[in-house]
Amino acid sequence: MISIKRTPIRLKADPKKVIIKSLDFGDPARSEPVINFVLGLSEQQAAEQLQNILEEFEHRHYDLKKVFLENFDRQVPLTSAGLETMPTLKKLLIGAYFTHEYSNESAALFNPSIVPHPDQSGLGEGELRFILSLRAVGEGHISSISFQTGIVTADGEVTLDQRADKLSTGQVSSKKAEAQYDLHFSADIPLSGRVLFPQSAAESNGMEDARFVQFFDNGESRYYGTYTAYNGRAIQPHLIETTDFQNFKIRPFQGSAASNKGMALFPEKINGHYAMVGRQGGRNLSIMYADDLLIWDDHQLLQTPQRDWEMLQMGNCGSPIKTEKGWLLLTHAVSVCGNTP
């Protein structure tokens, strides 16, 4: 018998929180009038405009000037040559014109997963610091991954840390191929201020339903997160790898079994193989084994819908949990009446 205690804690979406994005017109011909307008301003006019922008927006973003310069650099290859030599003041202002804010939680905040925090220092006896990942859905229903930290006591009391008042989407430090990139966050940005936002075409319409697990192998641990990349037409399961939630590796899964949604890794190898539960055919739960973490070809049927409340499809609620009596897997299902845990 498992005792479940509900808490009054509620995590609510905050539409006032925003990330900052590059504004892409998609056509150099549309960008040039904006750039020419700034070039035609006097130094004083440009300085006044930039100062007004900074006074209104700088307090709610990290390194806003740096972002403006990065967005300016994105425009240089698209327009006439010689822009690199212009004064920094006008570079900043042009970059500002090609920058916009995006409310990444404006629609919803849901589908959590939870893992122990890599830093367990400074805690009382029996306490555990945790990381909660959440699916944030914003304008245009684009999904991203946000984080919340907190502490749970030995008797199950939960307290949440105050969420950061500013958000960052980090820096792509390396892009190896389409849908394969490394992402880095500055150490001075708190974890709840870090957002994993789509950085590749494969996930341009969302990073959905991340399931994180602390994975142990040969006495070492790291964190893996499986999520669904959605480009507005097709889905593809992807993997997040990190040891510190500051540096992330993003890679796509491959193989015939890497399909549909809801893939979730076991927290350790089974009989020397990686193991994962998932859904093939859009309806049934399956179990998969692989020797390469990114390539999944073998899958076996694990469970099919049997009850009226799961008649349409089944799915897992996260990675299996190891207990004294075996593996515990929480599932959800969909019927004609809606989603049921």
Please characterize this protein's 3D structure.
14% of the residues lie in helices and 38% in strands. Helix 1 (28-39) packs across helix 4 (88-97), helix 2 (43-57) packs across helix 4 (88-97) and helix 3 packs across helix 4. It is built from 4 helices and 22 strands. The protein has a 6-stranded antiparallel beta sheet, with no helix packed on it. Strands 3, 4, 5, 6 and 9 form a 5-stranded antiparallel beta sheet that branches. Strands 14-15-16-17 form a 4-stranded antiparallel beta sheet, with no helix packed on it. A hairpin with a 2-residue loop joins strand 19 (321-323) and strand 20. The protein has helices at 28-39, 43-57, 64-75, 88-97; strands at residues 19-22, 99-102, 108-116, 128-137, 143-152, 158-160, 171-177, 180-184, 195-196, 207-217, 220-230, 235-242, 247-252, 264-265, 274-280, 284-290, 298-303, 313-316, 321-323, 326-328, 331-335, 338-340. The longest helix is centred in the N-terminal third of the chain and has 15 residues, at 43-57.
